[in-house]
Every structure is written in structure tokens, then in C-alpha cells.
């Protein structure tokens, strides 16, 4: 029987979003999940709570898939695995390593459930690599009536195309078949370089490395350049520096919060504490990095040929407004895809992420940066803060109305919508 907790308080990882659901349910299997869907008028599903938008917030029933995890079956010939949707990304190597499989792509946080990462278009970086959702070969969807639909490019193809990034609004993903690749090692290299050097060379460098990303500080001409490349070399395990990057981030964020004018001087420490490093390990150990310093985040995807111009405007605005945040901007590449509500729909993109320490008001930086990102026709990451309304989103997504019609057909009573998604999908404002 499924575990049930009554009248629980829920909050996301950063503490920014919270709600008091009537109950939190933990079904043990898909049959229990079907019964819950049939017997509850309103449901939201929660993964790891790593989204910064109110995607999960509800005062109705909240449902966790934590017990519905693991790998159901694998196709070794095609390097695919069918994975239960509640499986956390950090647990995948224990199932995939023994069968010589790894995810094609990952971000630098591995706490999410697979369903959560897929449903929000979570991504890593790489000019020739798509978001995680684009590597979904098929999925099983539990609809509002309790029916299980098999969706792929050959079966329920329209639901498959749209449903890989649907924010949990079509129903509940129960199983996801991922296109993987043979287990591989990555060489991680981090070094400092100047902003000017990066801007001159980044479009060449992005083709030379499987993954490349930049961590850019608003008051500092030096940035951290991180590359990941496949290698057959022996493992050189990642070691923690002292003080750790996380400890430094927390300390400098606290100082910036209390003494904002220190921020430019604290950022000058970058050249002292960041040293060139190279580590080699299996991909599942190299992709994730510790994230113990909590933050809130905004991220927009900018057309790739306008990314550098947009970055320049953002940095100029941060300096002009003396915005107090120690966190660097993240600058990454993501290849386009064909998923209706993917931020990368038919568009190769540069992803620009802006963070604010969780004890500081995120609007201090987001209100400065977001209008710039929107001027460049940026599309927001669905799991990260933004202020776009339905009408503005319709302008950015050619298949927006098609998506709304399909969602309404699958869930006419809006069983899977919370107030946030009702405003997004049912309102005209």
C-alpha cells in the first residue's frame, strides 16, 4: 500500500517556493499510481524540487515517484534502457554501468528525477548535443482517466513530440526509454582566460570540445573556462581544493550580501583561488558538481548568433547598476530539437544563466537582466524563474496553441494543473 503523509509542508531546494498540500502520496508501483489518479481530482507530481518556478506548488494532492525507480529493461543492441520515471539521475550509474551504458548528456546537478529533468527540458552543454528530453526514444504516460499510453515516434506520435517537455501537464510519465551511449570517460579541464580571448575564440572552441561552458563574473575580466572531452586515458579522480569552491562561494556570497560594495574586490580573488585543473573519470562522476550553496536562478536561451552580443549587454547592465551578486553567469551551448515547448525548438542556442544567493532578493539581479534576455527573443528554462505570460510565450513558441489543444484533449478537467500552470495554459494574459 502506498505511503501517505497528511497535511505536509513542501518547499523546493532553495526555499523560494513552498505550499501546504492536503496530502503527499508515495505509490509503490504503477498500479497504485493508477488508483491515485482515478480517485483524486487534482494532482501534482514532485521530483527533487530543483525547479525555481511554482511548478509543484499545490494545496491539493502531491505525489512523489521516489519508490517507482530503477531500470525495467535494456536493449543492448541499440544502447537503450527503459527507466522508471522516479529514478534520480545520481542513481543511474548503478543500473547502467553494469550494462555498459551512460546518458548521452547531463547537466551539473544530478539530484533530479528523470521525469523532472525530461519534463522541463533540462540540459548540459555542447554545440552538438541536445537537451536530455531530445534523447527520449519513447515514454509511457498515465492519463487523467487512468489509462496508460505508449508514446513514441511510431505510436501516439503527436503526444510523444509534444510530451517530452510538457511540465507534467499531459499526465504522469511512468517509464522513459532513453537513447544512451556506451559507457565513456570524460576529461574535465578548468582554466582561467580573459573575456576578450573567450569572445574571439568561443565559436571555434565549441567545435573542438564535446562540452564547453564559461563562468563569467560581472566585475572581473577573467572567467573560468570548463571543457569536457571523451578520453581513453587513465582515471585521475576529482579532488577537492581547500578551501572548497563551495565554501568560497558561500563565504563570498555572505560578504556580498552584508557589504555589497565589496563585490568587485571579492571577485578579484578569482585569480588567487582558481587554478588550472584536469580530472578524468566516468561521465556520471564528471558531469555533476557539488551544489551546497543554495541559490535561485533565471535562465534564457538566446539564438546562438546573438549570444555574445546579449552577454555584453547583460554584463554592462550589471556593472552599471552595481548589482550585488557574487555568483558568476553561466554561458553554454545547446543544439536545437523538434519538441514543441522545448526552449531549443528549431533553434541552436546559447544558454545564459543568472544566479542569486538564496538569502538575497533574486529580483535585485533578475529585474535588471530579464528585459535584456527578452529583447533577444530568449526563451526561458521552464524550471527557472521568469515573468513571461501566455501571450508573450505564444510569440516565442510556434506550436504553443497546438500544445494547449493537445493538453486540453488529454486532460479536459485540468487534473494535472496547479494554479501556476492554470495561469500559464488557461489564461490569455
TrEMBL record:
Keywords: FAD, Flavoprotein, Oxidoreductase. One of its GO terms (molecular function) is D-arabinono-1,4-lactone oxidase activity. The keyword Flavoprotein applies. InterPro entries: ALO_C, FAD-bd_PCMH, FAD-bd_PCMH-like_sf, FAD-bd_PCMH_sub1, FAD-bd_PCMH_sub2, FAD_lactone_oxidase-like, Oxid_FAD_bind_N, Vanillyl_alc_oxidase_C-sub2. The keyword Membrane does not apply. Pfam families: ALO (PF04030), FAD_binding_4 (PF01565). Residues 17-183 form the FAD-binding PCMH-type domain. GO terms for cellular component: membrane. NCBIfam families: bact_FAD_ox. This is FAD-binding PCMH-type domain-containing protein. It comes from Acinetobacter gerneri DSM 14967 = CIP 107464 = MTCC 9824.
Amino acid at each position: 500500500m502506498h505511503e501517505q503523509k497528511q497535511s505536509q509542508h513542501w518547499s523546493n531546494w532553495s526555499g523560494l517556493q513552498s505550499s501546504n498540500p492536503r496530502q503527499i502520496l508515495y505509490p509503490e508501483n504503477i498500479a497504485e499510481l493508477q488508483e491515485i489518479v482515478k480517485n483524486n481530482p487534482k494532482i501534482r507530481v514532485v521530483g527533487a524540487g530543483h525547479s525555481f518556478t511554482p511548478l509543484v506548488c499545490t494545496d491539493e494532492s502531491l505525489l512523489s515517484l521516489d519508490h517507482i525507480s530503477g531500470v525495467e529493461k535494456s536493449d543492448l543492441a541499440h544502447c537503450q534502457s527503459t527507466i522508471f520515471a522516479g529514478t534520480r539521475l545520481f542513481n543511474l550509474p548503478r543500473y547502467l554501468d553494469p550494462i555498459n551504458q551512460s546518458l548521452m548528456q547531463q547537466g551539473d546537478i544530478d539530484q533530479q528525477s528523470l521525469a523532472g529533468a525530461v519534463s522541463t527540458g533540462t540540459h548540459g552543454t555542447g554545440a552538438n548535443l541536445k537537451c536530455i528530453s531530445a534523447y527520449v526514444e519513447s515514454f509511457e504516460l498515465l492519463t487523467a482517466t487512468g489509462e496508460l499510453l505508449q508514446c513514441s515516434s511510431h505510436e501516439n506520435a503527436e503526444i510523444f513530440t509534444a510530451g517530452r517537455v510538457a511540465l507534467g501537464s499531459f499526465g504522469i510519465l511512468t517509464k522513459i526509454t532513453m537513447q544512451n551511449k556506451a559507457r565513456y570517460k570524460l576529461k574535465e579541464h578548468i582554466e582561467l582566460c580573459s573575456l576578450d580571448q573567450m569572445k574571439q575564440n568561443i565559436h571555434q572552441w565549441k567545435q573542438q570540445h564535446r562540452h564547453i561552458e564559461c563562468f563569467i563574473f560581472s566585475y572581473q575580466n577573467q572567467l573560468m573556462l570548463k571543457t569536457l572531452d571523451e578520453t581513453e586515458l587513465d582515471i585521475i579522480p576529482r579532488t577537492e581544493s581547500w578551501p572548497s569552491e563551495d565554501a568560497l562561494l558561500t563565504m563570498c556570497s555572505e560578504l556580498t550580501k552584508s557589504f555589497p560594495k565589496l563585490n568587485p574586490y571579492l571577485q578579484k580573488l578569482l585569480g588567487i583561488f582558481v587554478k588550472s585543473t584536469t580530472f578524468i573519470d566516468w561521465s556520471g562522476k564528471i558531469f555533476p558538481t557539488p551544489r551546497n550553496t543554495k541559490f535561485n536562478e533565471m535562465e534564457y536561451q538566446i539564438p546562438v548568433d546573438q549570444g555574445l552580443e546579449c552577454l555584453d549587454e547583460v554584463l554592462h547592465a550589471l556593472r552599471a547598476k552595481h548589482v550585488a551578486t557574487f555568483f558568476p553567469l553561466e554561458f553554454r551551448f545547446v543544439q536545437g530539437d523538434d519538441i514543441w515547448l522545448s526552449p531549443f525548438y528549431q533553434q541552436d542556442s546559447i544558454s545564459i544563466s543568472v544566479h542569486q544567493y538564496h538569502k538575497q532578493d533574486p529580483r535585485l539581479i533578475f529585474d535588471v537582466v530579464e528585459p535584456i534576455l527578452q529583447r533577444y527573443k530568449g526563451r526561458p528554462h521552464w524550471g527557472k524563474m521568469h515573468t513571461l505570460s501566455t501571450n508573450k510565450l505564444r510569440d516565442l513558441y510556434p506550436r504553443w496553441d497546438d500544445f494547449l489543444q493537445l493538453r486540453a484533449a488529454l486532460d479536459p478537467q485540468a487534473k494535472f494543473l496547479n494554479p501556476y500552470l492554470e495561469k500559464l495554459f488557461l489564461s490569455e494574459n
